[in-house]
Design a protein that fits this description.
The structure holds 2 protein chains of 2 kinds.
Chain A: H1 5-11, H2 17-61, E1 68-73, E2 79-83, E3 90-92, E4 95-97, E5 100-107, E6 114-119, E7 129-132, E8 135-138, E9 148-149, E10 155-156, E11 166-174, E12 180-191, E13 194-200
Antiparallel strand pairs in A: 1-2, 1-5, 3-13, 4-5, 5-8, 6-11, 7-8, 9-10, 11-12, 12-13
Chain B: H1 7-29, H2 32-49, H3 56-80, H4 98-107, H5 111-122, H6 127-134, H7 138-160
Helix pairs in contact in B: 1-2, 1-3, 2-3, 4-7, 5-7, 6-7
The chains are: A alpha+beta, B mainly alpha.
């Protein structure tokens, strides 16, 4: 075997013009195919991102739709619970609550969520509304079993309670990151020992 | 990467290295169709990566390394998915010539000897340069060359008989 025979044998492999054309043509075709696949992948990726964004937006960005359930007596004197509809007046009769004779409101918020009820009417800025966990108690008369406090956190004599026949407060719901998710306004009006409640957003 | 196919650049590169790459791929893959396909993939890889080279030698070494790695990947695939190869590689010399028998003996060697023998005898690289291209030590290159030559002689004698 000659010394340069390896080189000679490999150099003798044919590399024809036909082969060259075929290779170059194949490069164009493969490149076009890759471009198409890349565009499809980009499109799919963008679609996925939009879908994820939409889902995230639905889960995080959309206001949390809190339902407020009110426990009260109906006209027949039976205890009932009603989910407060938005913008519709509901007539309620008071029932016995842990803090007196009145109404119980329950908010269906997750455990790690918080809320606060803020009176929006300064003229009647008195805590007739009690919060305990997910429950809000509104005691519209003087039959209060516990103590009540003014907005300045001063204990009030129950005799000093003005005769309240109307109350309006805002419920602000926060998530676990203290981001306000929702604001709801509940108005109460007393009329002939009944209460008319209306939920506004 | 831009979507435009720069035909001039690819054609220039192909004219410069096409034959060398084709022959590396033939020696490694032992099949002209696979070799053509591999050369196309090398050129596409070049277009996608758009590597910047310091020197012409650097550029050539990059193409050789990419070609060898791509062929090795394909060989791994063929080992996992065996197929019958009925193709005879077309050569300028006759079927009965000694060159043809040398080529057949060379193609019967394991790939690690084929690549070293190709780079040493055909591309005329030094052992340390081959080591840099293949990312192995110079002594490993020398050992492979020695063993490759011995195996080639054995194969050639076997082919001759």
């Amino acid at each position: 075997m000659k010394k340069n025979q390896i080189k000679d044998s490999i150099n003798g492999i044919e590399f024809t013009e036909k082969t060259k054309r075929r290779i170059l043509k194949g490069v164009c075709e493969k490149n076009n195919r890759k471009v198409t696949i890349r565009r499809i992948r980009t499109g799919v990726a963008v679609a996925c991102m939009i879908a994820i964004f939409a889902i995230m937006n639905t889960m995080i960005g959309k206001p949390y739709n809190t339902e407020i359930t009110v426990y009260a007596m109906n006209k027949e004197g039976k205890e009932q619970n009603i989910i407060l509809p938005i913008g519709k007046e509901i007539v309620l009769k008071p029932l016995q609550t842990p803090v007196g004779y009145g109404y119980i409101f329950e908010l269906d918020i997750p455990d790690n969520y918080r809320y606060e009820s803020v009176p929006t009417d300064n003229a009647k800025n008195i805590f007739t509304v009690y919060q305990n966990g997910k429950y809000i108690y509104w005691i519209p008369n003087k039959q209060i079993s516990g103590k009540i406090y003014s907005s300045a956190n001063q204990e009030l004599d129950t005799d000093e309670i003005p005769n309240i026949d109307e109350c309006r407060f805002e419920i602000i719901i926060y998530n676990d990151r203290k981001i306000v998710l929702e604001n709801k306004i509940v108005e109460f009006k007393l009329a002939e020992n009944n209460c008319v409640a209306i939920l506004k957003e | 990467m831009s979507d435009t196919f720069d035909e001039n650049t690819v054609e220039y590169i192909f004219m410069k290295y096409g034959e060398m790459l084709y022959k590396i791929c033939i020696v490694m893959l032992k099949n002209s169709h696979d070799a053509e396909d591999a050369v196309q993939d090398i050129l596409i890889k070049y277009m996608i990566r758009k590597p910047v080279f310091d020197t012409g030698e650097h550029e050539k070494a990059w193409f050789i390394r990419v070609a060898i790695n791509l062929c090795k990947d394909r060989l791994r695939f063929y080992n996992a998915h065996p197929q019958i190869d009925i193709e005879t590689i077309k050569t300028t010399y006759s079927e009965e010539s000694e060159d043809k028998r040398v080529l057949e003996a060379l193609l019967n060697l394991p790939p690690k000897y084929r690549e070293v023998l190709f780079l040493y005898y055909v591309e005329e690289y030094k052992c340390y340069e081959i080591g840099k291209i293949l990312r192995i030590t110079e002594s490993a290159v020398k050992k492979r060359l020695e063993r490759g030559r011995n195996l080639l002689k054995i194969e050639f004698r076997g082919e001759s008989r």
